[in-house]
Amino acid sequence: xxxAEQTKQPxxxxxxxxxxxxxxxxxxxxxxxxxxxxxxxxxxSEQFLSQSNIMxxxxxxxxxxxxxxxxxxxxxxxxxxxxxxxxxxxxxVLVVDLHDKIGxxxxxxxxxxxxxxxxxVNGFLVGLMRLNSLIVTLxxxxxxxxxxxxxxxxxxxxxxxxGGTWFAFFGRGYxxxxxxxxxxxxxxxxxxxxxxxxxxxxxxxxxxxxxPMAAVYSGIRKNWCVFSTYLISAFCVACAALVLGSRxxxxxxxxxxxxxxxxxxxxxxxxxxxxxxxxxxxxxxIGVLILGFIQNGLLLMGYxxxxxxxxxxxIIILAVWLDLANKRKRLLTTHS
Amino acid sequence: MTSIKxxxxxxxxxxPIWLFVIAIFIFFSFMSEYFLSLGNITxxxxxxxxxxxxxxxxxxxxxxxxxxxxxxxxxxxxxxLAVGLQDHGLTIAIIAALASGMLLGALNGLVVWxxxxxxxxxxxxxxxxxxxxxxxxxxxxxxxxxxxxxxxxGASTIGPIPVLAIIFLLCTLVMHLVLTRxxxxxxxxxxxxxPEASIDAxxxxxxxxxxxFIIVGFFAALAGVLLASQMGAATPxxxxxxxxxxxxAVVLGGTKLTGGYGSITGTLGGVLAIGILxxxxxxxxxxxxxxxxxxxxxxxxxxxxxxxxxxxxxxEVRI
Amino acid sequence: MNPVQAITxxxxxxxxxxxxxxxxxxxxxxxxxLNKVDFDVRPGEVHALxxxxxxxxxxxxxxxxxxxxxxxxxxxxxxEEMEFENPKHAKRAGVVLIHQEQSLVPEMTVAENxxxxxxxxxxxxxxxxxxxxxxxxxxxxxxxxSFQHDDLVGSLSIAKKQMVEIARALVFTPRVVVFDEPxxxxxxxxxxxxxxxxxxxxxxxxxxxxxxxxxxxxxHLSHRISVLRDGEYxxxxxxxxTNEDEVTRMMIGRSLELDHASKPSxxxxxMLELRNLSVKRLFTDVSLNVRRGEIIGMYGLVGAGRSExxxxxxxxxxxxxxxxxxDGEVVNFRNSHDAVVAGIALVPEDRKDxxxxxxxxxxxxxxxAGLKTVSTMGFMKRADERAVYDKYHQAMKIKTPSxxxxxxxxxxxxxxxxxxxxxLHTHPKLLILDEPTxxxxxxxxxxIHALVKDLAKSGYAVLVISSEMPEVLGLSNRxxxxxxxxVTAEFDGDSVSEDELVQAITxMGTPTPxxxxxx
Lengths: 336, 319, 519
Prior knowledge:
- The structure holds three protein chains of three kinds.
- Chain A is mainly α.
- In chain A, 76% of the residues lie in helices and 2% in strands.
- Chain A has a domain at 50-256 and 273-278.
- In chain A, helix 4 (104-128) packs antiparallel against helix 5.
- By secondary structure, chain B is mainly alpha-helical.
- Chain B has one domain (15-305): ABC transporter involved in vitamin B12 uptake, BtuC (Orthogonal Bundle).
- In chain B, the strands form two sheets. Chain B has a two-stranded antiparallel ribbon. A two-stranded antiparallel ribbon of chain B has the order 2-3.
- In chain B, strand 2 and strand 3 (161-162) form a beta hairpin.
- Chain B is globular, with a radius of gyration of 20 Å.
């Protein structure tokens, strides 16, 4: 086998080495971009690369990040989840409101149970009923938003005794000098990454996303696989709500609104394809961190916060475009 | 069962959304005495005209096999421009607002066409970015219109019918005719239904896509201008979530997300359904947030009904 | 009527070629797909183009139809040198490609599909519906189509869709029409219609290029045969003065013999038994049995219900009547997972849609059906996975540079071997192969046939579904013939005659009227 390849090699040598660089860039391009942008920002602001600043950024990004970890699994499975933003506001309002009423432990349990229930509804409709995930989760976004408002009656909720509850640990606590949200983010990311790349379950999700029909013809219970991805997504949202609720100790009804799109932005920026069957958690982590660092870097450089949206617009499209261009070996499409 | 299916499919099919519109119309007529008044019905039309205008363009884009998430932001920018530029003259302000929408639509279309990046991603980015542009332009301030002609226009009527309703219905008619009768309309279907085949048949896929993005950009901007004239003001957050409402309306109207199938008449039904529900529930003094739940449930129900009606159960394997 | 009988070949037509391709070279990154290929078509002639998968037939035709542009070489149409920038350009010049894949828009009418991209217009870019209708009706009449101009294409049968494609070719008076595997999805009833259309095109002086894997068709239809091998032109012969052996030799560089002798001969207990199995509207009262070590061929036309029987056994459809016995016990599968656990393997009909995850690498595809065997507590054991891959990679002589290769990049034959390997790894009791060699080159075909026989000899119960008679005859111990959702006959694989088989699958001499099943 090796010798056969070697005989062909001389003709293609120049091409191969170029493809090697391109291949590396296309596989790790986002990492390169990440390091590059870090470098540029550090030129403009001395603060940028300081340990405390980095930790701040990661901590701020952790809520979006935790959700993105779950949504990445849904996307790899070939579907979308637009309802995570509403779900986050649902879970946060719930846990904060119940904290004083039934105690933190019970509040957390109820919050997790109900959020997972919402995930199960998503999973039921998309997985078992086989409805279009974009529309279903769009509808669920609206339904859950309505439920939050009905539950809270349009009032903000908060925790009365903010100083004296161990609930503060999740959003404000530190373990070994690392903020708990960051730890949780890292832990979840590693856990889910392992799940996706080292277990049979992960392999099945990739198969279902890559070609659902063939997955079924291979004896994979596709519908339940899809169902389970929504549970993972809901679980991650519940974790994010834990952090968010504990950090702010109060919640408005519209917290989390629009998060679904920021989450998607992070995932896309990381390089996970929306078509399903490909992608990885660590890419998503990088994508989310890039968003966080851009936001922070621009702020440090003195730009208003909304500048990051404009920058995100450009780099999301650029990232996907360059990836596509590399695959088709051509910058622009050819059709007219 | 087959007779029910025949009712919804085939050449002379009644769009299910219209049955639903009629049903809720009758329902609310009985539930509230105010509902059936001319004032209230024109009111519904005015209320729906904003979402409705965008939905016209969105129908084109979705039949074309794309989606536009940036319409809410385009609406917001156009509204801010229409109010903010009034110092330079009302006409210039409105032209600038409409042009901004078409320009951004053209930009979206051009990017989708030339880079081949999925429209969902392109317009998701644009949605964030254009909102950034609004904040940049307005400095996070709301603008109030000092020009009374502008504010009056939003409330003016021709006979008993508000101008906004007339504009909306006229645009609906024109867009319906363009979609069903012109080369561009038919090619929009072809491109959405089978892009590969369309390219082979020499249809200039990219151009049609770009035109449709310009159309939706134009309508989003028009909706923004009209909304601003209704309110006499523009806020930087104007139009948030409108993309979701619009897509909901279009999907309720039977247009397929995968492209190649849909109609303006269906979209009109979808828009009216949302409008009547909001208005009727409001009249029945149901808190506004229940509408969110009801809408979501209806949207999901439509999907389920569509699935039950469309799947030929013998052909498909159990998966 | 029966295409198999008329293997006569026609006299070549003596005329100046209407189309000449000279020295066509096409390079893709890293590959030379075509190397100085010559080809010509004379008016009124059917010129068959043959070659194994990947030999460059489709690429050559795409160059001809303007989908690809050649790096070198000339296209001369009617004495003029042409350069086609896109398919529409080629179409206007009179070169039309009728696709293997359906290139229609399902939600549009027949008329709109036929005039796709060239709808007649009135002022203001408005569609001229009246002219569209009249023009369409004219074309449909010449083709004697049984559907209307305003039928939705999505509601037509595959054969009728193919007719729409052909109708589309007639919009611009064609000079050369390329048929790329036109009969792949047609039933034997529908093929004569296609042959008539080709015949009438020939009579109008149109040159026909005919690409197919089926020798019987080629010898029935064509005047001349040209062969490509590995992107190179190997020669042209007159159909009337050649035979299948010579053509096969030209294609693969050696001749191929079907080995009837080595069929398995020792059978064990009943592994699968179907008792009056039925699924509403699809098939009725199907009874059969497969023993250990035995190969049963299920022969019938496309649409006779064969694949549906297989899918029902595999748990993908719920039976409306009858029962399935596996290893003597009645089984009732809720889904395909249950079937796999119970020891059934199905190599599906459509490799790319049903058999493989094209974006996954070879190894991952290979282990997909038996993930439990290569993992502990749900965690994959990489070394075991590699071992599984290596085992079947060697055993089946799969040609791929590495296990990391995406299966989408492999040839049809190697892809099919991966699907088979995937199922062998699950060590099934029953192996069902649905059209195992469709669209596969001759070399891989023989290898797969030999493999199937070896598997049966080592104790597998095998059910082979096929619409190719030589395949069924060459493999099966017994043959089950199906027609219109029913088993019409069962034959001994060694003593049955071709005529008997053809009668059994075309419903001749069977008392059951077709309406009984459909209604």
